[in-house]
């Protein structure tokens, strides 16, 4: 079974746009106003932006933390050899 790349899925604009569209259409279909549907869709997209930012920054921090640790280990090793 394949591993699912959740970070990539959760940061997909297509996914969040699809969710916002589905929810807004359900609101209109259930008798809600288009204004209410637009407001809720905007909230979903704003939440998606925050989720994408947090995941992206987490991945960037993880990548830079791994790089700096490796560089620090090489620096200490080089100093010990001198």
- Tell me the number of strands: 0
Low-confidence stretches: none
Percent of residues in helices comes to over 70%
Per DSSP, the total helix count is 3
What is the beta-strand fraction?
under 5%
- Overall structural domain count: 1
Rg: 22 Å
| C-alpha end-to-end distance | 49 Å
Mean pLDDT comes to 81
Q: Structural class of the secondary structure composition?
A: mainly alpha
The major β-sheet equals: none
Give the SSE string: HHH
Q: What shape does the CA trace take?
A: elongated
Question: What does this molecule look like?
Answer:
- This protein has about 80 residues and is mainly alpha-helical.
- It is built from 3 helices and no strands.
- The longest helix has about 50 residues.
- The mean pLDDT is about 80.
In a few lines, what is going on in this structure?
The chain is mainly alpha-helical and 82 residues long. It has helices at 6-10, 13-29, 34-81.
Key terms:
82 residues, mainly alpha, elongated
Topology:
Elements lengths: L5 H5 L2 H17 L4 H48 L1
């Amino acid at each position: 079974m394949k591993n699912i790349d959740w970070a990539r899925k959760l940061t997909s604009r297509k996914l969040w746009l699809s969710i916002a569209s589905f929810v807004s259409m359900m609101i209109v279909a259930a008798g809600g106003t288009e204004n209410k549907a637009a407001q809720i869709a905007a909230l979903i997209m704003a939440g998606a932006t925050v989720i994408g930012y947090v995941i992206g920054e987490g991945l960037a921090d993880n990548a830079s933390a791994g790089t700096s640790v490796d560089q620090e280990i090489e620096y200490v090793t080089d100093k010990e050899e001198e």
